[in-house]
Amino acid sequence: RHTMEPSKDYIFYHKGFCFPENLITPEYIDSLETFEIRDSDVFLVTFPKSGTVWTQNILSLIIHEGHRNGTENIKNMDRMPWLEFNIKNLDYTALPSPRVFATHLPYYLTPRDLRNKRARVIYVTRNPKDVLVSYFHFSKIIDTLEKVPDFNIFMERFLAGKVPGSKWLDHVTGWYSHAEDFNILFLTYEEMKKDLRSAVLKICDFLGRKLSEKEVESVVRQATFENMKKDPRANYEKLPEVFEGNEEGHFLRKGTIGDWKNIMTVAQSERVDEVLKKKMENLPIKFIWDINDQM
């Protein structure tokens, strides 16, 4: 039953990009072209499973003093909604500034004003083997994704772009090669993991946020993956019903570098290398494949 071809019950293609079937319509995607941008907006862009929720938490801690000092109990999902998945039917125009949106959109489907250097974009990338393994685990616990019991099949779909988010390489290359159209900061999951403080300072600088040394320390302490897993505002444990099926696993799993080695065989690792490694050399990113690799 589980062939290379994904079930049409779970995905559809629009303008060359693969979307999850039940969370969005082509009409809504098209409407985003004219989505009204404010100069204070921040867009967090990722390919799925590249540290989105973690970075959302870091941004929330930097921007919202009430999150930092524990006086506000607002879930990150409500504070930083998804641009393309408006599952709670929020009126985005009514959100107070600065608005922060998360999105998995490719560069060419984002709002026109964003492509004219308005607002700010933070793009986080992660090594594709860890993305692949994280995505595979994720597909088992989220009902909106097709469950594929065989990792090999999932891997081939991932490499062929037959998963929501399409091809990892196209997504990353698209954003990097169109950087001049955006007001953009590029980060990698691995650099954030290895030196969170530096990443926090980079983000503060990019957003024009002046935090005291004490505030920076507070952000870094609370934003570690381990602390975030314990924080109900940030750990996505209580998801809207559309995502149900979260009984057997957790939205936040390991949050580490090199977990792919625990899942992938040598042959599978070589298969990913064969498809991606050569082309990845053109990207201006140093990829880290193991926690002990140097940046």
Plain-language structure description:
With 295 residues, the chain is of the alpha/beta class. The protein has one domain: Rossmann fold. The protein is 37% helix and 9% strand. The chain has twelve helices and six strands. The chain has helices at residues 26-31, 52-63, 65-68, 76-79, 128-141, 151-160, 168-177, 189-194, 196-207, 213-223, 225-230, 266-280, and strands at 11-14, 17-20, 42-46, 100-103, 120-125, 184-188. It has a four-stranded parallel beta sheet with strand order 4-3-5-6, with helices on both faces. Helix 2 (52-63) runs antiparallel to helix 10 and helix 9 crosses helix 10 (213-223). 34% of the residues are buried.
For the biggest β-sheet, the strand order reads 4-3-5-6
Mean pLDDT: 85
Proportion in helices: 25-40%
- Number of domain units: 1
Task: Give the full name of the CATH homologous superfamily.
Answer: P-loop containing nucleotide triphosphate hydrolases
Order of helices and strands: EEHEHHHEEHHHEHHHHH
**Number of helical segments with 4 or more residues:** 12
Name the beta content range.
5-15%
CATH class: Alpha Beta
Name given to the CATH architecture: 3-Layer(aba) Sandwich
Q: How many β strands by DSSP?
A: 6
Radius of gyration: 18 Å
Low-confidence stretches: 235-251
Shape: globular
Fill in the CATH topology.
Rossmann fold
Q: Give the class from helix and strand content and strand pairing.
A: alpha/beta
Biggest beta sheet attributes: 4 strands, parallel
Oligomer: single chain
Spatial separation of the terminal alpha carbons: 42 Å
